[in-house]
Amino acid sequence: MIAAAIQAWEVDMAATNVYAGTARSMGATMGGVFRQVAGETRWEHLTNGFPDEADVHAITVHPENPDVIYVGSTKGAYRSTNRGNSWERLRLPAEADIWSVCVHPKNPRIIYAGASPPGVYRSEDGGDTWRKTADPGLPDRVIMGFACRVMRLDVDPNSPNDIYATLEANGTMRSRNGGETWEDCTADLIRFCEDPKYRSRIGSQTEIEGMLDGHALAVSAAAPGTVFLANRMGLFRSNDRGEHWQDMEISRFSPLTYGRDIRVSPHDPKVMYACLSPAARSTDGSIYRSDDVGQTWKRFDHDIKAEATMMAVTVHPRDPNQVYGASRFGQVFGTQNGGRTWNESRLPEGVRDVYAVACG
């Protein structure tokens, strides 16, 4: 029985691919999607059908079929049905820079894509056809040097018509009807800025910039009606579907408080992972884990040294012991034993800006 379990583990490891999405910025000479077999060191640049000039912002592996991968890029949304060996461009109804792709937790044929300028597209047939959902109509509160974008979408598994989104840099929004209409959930985030410690301005006209600089968002089946948010100022949660927010006070557990990613484990909704760093451009970063739906956190990525901001984390959809993370400048970290040991692998020379990591 033990031998069979070991053999099954080895087969699963052999079938696991890790994907990284990169951009041509900060002097980079390579961008796009890269793939590695878990446990190996070689990275493949997946260019068959994928435009050479596209910057990749999001990678989502289908939760039930690891052959199917969705990618969001500056050149639109792409799909592979053979683990990235070839790509097809998905026919969204308009040219769009796609920053997030979300597969519905109850019906995986429903897919949402978040765009820049702010908008959300919906497919009900696995990505074959798309329509644009209602215009969010959010006011332009923060004027940055880049167009605002829908950085992350998530669906409440307890209430599958409830969709939440965070924007960089314009707060959060929700839909209670599958995207037919959208509601602004930002007012209570702005309220934090009455306290000077929540004020931050780097590239805009206003000190509410930091609280509205949303990077990632997650919803857990273990906390009905609760939304978790990672932004420049830390980690926040709403217990009432985005109406009101509270600081999770990540500084109680970590010296790093810049929140870049937050994910719920697909195996246990009480388990969450977050990427924390000092700032958007930094020389440090870590992956933290919570086993109690965000009440407490502990550093998870033991004995690794990130040389840049930790940008993304992902959990294997079929194996809770496999977790992978990526730093901005091309380091990819992975554990196959629940965090006891970690491996580091560097993306090819020329990669300088990593946005996404996924596995399956």
Describe this structure in words.
The protein has 360 residues and is mainly beta. It has one domain (19-359): YVTN repeat-like/Quinoprotein amine dehydrogenase (Methylamine Dehydrogenase, Chain H), CATH 2.130.10. Helices cover 5% and strands 38% of the residues. The protein has helices spanning 2-15, 187-191; strands at 17-22, 32-37, 44-45, 56-61, 69-73, 76-80, 88-89, 97-103, 111-116, 119-123, 131-132, 149-155, 163-168, 171-175, 183-184, 214-219, 227-231, 234-238, 246-247, 258-264, 272-277, 286-290, 298-299, 310-315, 323-327, 331-335, 343-346, 354-359. The strands form seven sheets. The protein has a four-stranded antiparallel β-sheet with strand order 3-2-1-28. It has a four-stranded antiparallel β-sheet with strand order 4-5-6-7, with no helix packed on it. It is globular and about 50 Å long.
